[in-house]
Amino acid sequence: MDEKTFSRDGTELAYTRAGRGPAVILVSGAMSTGGTVAPLAGLLTHRFTALWYDRRGRGESGDTAPYAVEREVEDLAALIDAAGGEAALYGVSSGGALALRAAASGLPVSRVAVYETPYADFSENGAQERAAYTARLTEALAADRRGDAVESFLRLTGLAEAVIEGARQSPMWASMEAMAPTLAYDDAVMGDGLLPRDLLAGVGVPVLAVAGSESPPWLRRAVEEVARAVPRGAQRTLEGQTHMVDPNVLAPVLTEFLTP
């Protein structure tokens, strides 16, 4: 990250800007930094001024307690100011939920694209499962059991126990534990995990919700429901893609949608 700006509460935000044209800000999801979306950003710079950043508490950005989702919306407000006063937003996974919240709050956002925002279920049982995850996560972080917090998150995503155990033995585990406190931030952004219909009804700008054809059915349904819940929504499915979408497949779709 080679530029800095400051959020309303004084938190320093590190970001990178590249390209020319209308501004688009890329918002990463849980357990990731701005570097995660950098390859996609690079594919957009031929048509847009792309900005990607480390969300608060991650990478080169600072953090300020206590956390609130509103502070992350203010972070996006600061980045929009840095971009020239208006920007489109792209968010992946829980970063998509943050982008939608920012648009609903009335920030000067021109368009929003989201990839597989994980509103997990549309039933009372789904809310109970999310509440149980929140309780486990809160307990683990309060006791500084960062590894347990990461495990809880990986189970929530549906990873098998053998895969989680393999991750624990991998060189990347230390960096995952270092980022574990921010899991509480993404959990707060997702709320109870159910589709926030009232909030989405207040998003007045065009929204594109994108899914991969090989992603789980519940995740593809969540994408469809986002597109239905916003007043100006559209939905696309990318053949052969999963939650770990190929930037080369996604970039042309975003370019078409985000071009004024």
Protein model, in words:
With 260 residues, the protein is an alpha/beta fold. It folds into two domains: 3-119 and 195-258, Rossmann fold (3-Layer(aba) Sandwich), CATH 3.40.50.1820; 124-188, no CATH class. The chain has helices spanning 34-44, 69-83, 94-104, 124-142, 146-156, 161-168, 173-179, 183-190, 197-201, 217-229, 247-258; strands at 3-6, 12-19, 23-27, 49-53, 87-92, 109-115, 207-212, 233-238. Strands 1-2-4-3-5-6-7-8 form an eight-stranded mixed beta sheet, with helices on both faces. Helix 4 (124-142) packs antiparallel against helix 5 (146-156). The longest helix is centred in the middle third of the chain and has 19 residues, at 124-142. The chain is globular. It starts with a strand and ends with a helix.
Task: Give a quick precis of the structure.
The protein is an alpha/beta fold and about 260 residues long. About 45% of the residues lie in helices and about 20% in strands.
> What is the approximate shape?
globular
The CATH class designation of the largest domain is: Alpha Beta
Radius of gyration: 17 Å
**CATH superfamily heading of the largest domain:** Alpha/Beta hydrolase fold, catalytic domain
Taking all residues together, what is the mean pLDDT? 95
CATH architecture of the largest domain: 3-Layer(aba) Sandwich
Structural class: alpha/beta
The tally of beta strands, per DSSP, is 8
Query: Largest beta sheet: what is the strand line-up?
Result: 1-2-4-3-5-6-7-8
The helix fraction, in percent, is: 40-55%
**CATH fold-level name of the largest domain:** Rossmann fold
Q: Report the sheet-strand fraction.
A: 15-25%
The total of helices stands at: 11
Question: What's the structural domain tally?
Answer: 2
> H/E series, N to C?
EEEHEHEHEHHHHHHEHEH
Q: Cα distance, first to last residue?
A: 27 Å
Largest sheet: 8 strands, mixed
Sequence stretches where pLDDT stays below 50 over 5 or more residues:
none
